[in-house]
Amino acid sequence: MEDLIQKLKESAGINDEQAAKAIETVVNFIKEKFPPMMHGAVDSFINSDTNGAIGDDGLI
After folding, report:
1. Which residues contact 46 (CB under 8 A, 6 or more apart)?
2. Which residues contact 15 (CB under 8 A, 6 or more apart)?
3. Position 59 in a domain
4. Can you give the residue range of the structural domain that contains 36?
5. pLDDT, one tens digit for every residue, the chain (60 residues)
6. Is the dihedral of CA 34, 39, 41, 44 positive or negative?
7. Would residue 55 count as lying in a domain?
């Protein structure tokens, strides 16, 4: 998730705390849209190390 925080900080010009809160807000929003059994998958995806699997255009 550190990569995502760094990318958000650079893109939006915000600090660590603001970036972490923004990500938390988005994750919680996504979880509201999925059944509870999928919440672990959302957490795993957000916390995974993609090693660049997601490109600058946001596509895998």
Report:
1. 1, 4, 23, 27
2. 9
3. no
4. 2-47
5. 888 899 999 999 999 999 999 999 999 999 999 999 999 999 999 888 655 444 455 544
6. positive
7. no
